Amino acid sequence: MYVAVKGGERAIENAHSWLAEERRGDPSVLELSVAQIREQMSLAVHRVMAEGSLYDPDLAALAIKQARGDLIEAIFLIRAYRTTLPRFGASNPVETSDMACDRRISATFKDLPGGQVLGPTFDYTHRLLEFKLAAEGTPAEAPKREAAPAPKPRVTDFLNREGLIEEAPRMDATPPDLTREPLEMPAERALRLQALARADEGFTLSLAYSTQRGYARNHAFVGELRIGAVPVEMEIPELGFAVEIGEITLTECETVNQFKGSKTEPPQFTRGYGLVFGQSERKAISMALVDRALRWEELGEDDQGAPAQDAEFVLYHADNIQATGFLEHIKLPHYVDFQSELELVRKLRREAGVDALPEAAE
After folding, report:
1. DSSP E strands: which ranges in 126-219?
2. 8, 55, 58, 156: which one has the fewest Cβ atoms less than 10 Å from its Cβ?
């Protein structure tokens, strides 16, 4: 039984004041602005937007500032704020093939039509601390050139032309909306992808890593990873056509996985898919690996009992806000619960002929 918290009002007010003071830190140091967090901690901002299911860099930066850099607390703030927003409608599905790519790489085709774009990445850095950053200098401007006008077709399209990869599964029905409806099992792929898109990055990464260590038959190549801005369009009933209402940055990953085949179907590769708000390629790749592992049943594979194959285990434990709420509530008063268990332990000890130590009797 959970006992409602009835802490002293003054104590709670003082705790809030202390929290605000700790958040601010040394007042002799200049205060961080929301704009500074948005521009200079952009990957943290993107994670908060992705797992908070709300694309707004300014609000995500504000949440990070309020949460003292605790990203899960910031995600909690964004989720809570999201529930207060009116909903005007739904946008059209974004077309990621029209993405203005800041980064586009493939681990399967070196000479990728449209070219590979390394973009801003840690991949080739030496992981050595740059102490010159402590001097707060301005970095040299990166060289620029015009973006290649050539189209950037998907890698999986090349394989698809030869029938070497399964057709992308399609669903014409309106997908469920996890932000408005509770998660229910069994979860179809559209719902699973939604849950994975806002799942905790660390949890998703761990599950993806487990698949690479052999806990599911899921050997994968990154067919393509692309990061960039895509237009968002919305149908306006009064106008009768779609209007572009803005742009959002997305990270998309398509994996090319171990093949399947049967007596009636020739062997072909299978797919995993990941799509998240902002620049978050670790999360997108992880999502694609876990997505592929969860498809074992529809692909006619064996259940190896791997955690990454168990949709209920994955989806019910992936949400860090639900997990945090349930985990952290145990630090709140449970006096009645504990007293009843304390009495039970004492009774068992008496029945066992063990006397309680004098100093532990109370």
Report:
1. none
2. 8
pLDDT digits (tens, 9 = 90+) for 7-22: 588 999 999 999 999 9
The pTM of the full predicted model, rounded to 2 decimals, is: 0.88
Question: What is the number of other CB atoms lying within 10 angstroms of the CB of residue 276?
Answer: 29
Give the integer Cα–Cα distance in Å for 289 and 210: 10
Tokens of 205: 């990464």
Output the six-digit token pair for 5.
């918290």
Alpha carbon 214 to its chain centroid, in Å, reads 23
Beta bridge partners of 220: 257
Question: How many of the other CB atoms lie within 10 Å of CB of 203?
Answer: 18
Phi-psi region at 56: left, alpha or beta (left = phi > 0; alpha = psi -120 to 50): beta
Write down how long the chain is. Answer: 362
Task: Name the packing angle between helices 57-66 and 71-82 (round to 10°).
Answer: 130
pLDDT tens string 294-332? 999 888 888 889 999 999 999 999 999 999 999 999 998
Nearest to 226 by CA among 124, 119, 91: 119
**Which residues is 86 bridged to in the sheet?**
none
- Rounded CA-CA distance 205/308 in Å is 11
Specify the 3-state DSSP secondary structure of 324: helix
Token pair, residue 356, equals 């309680």
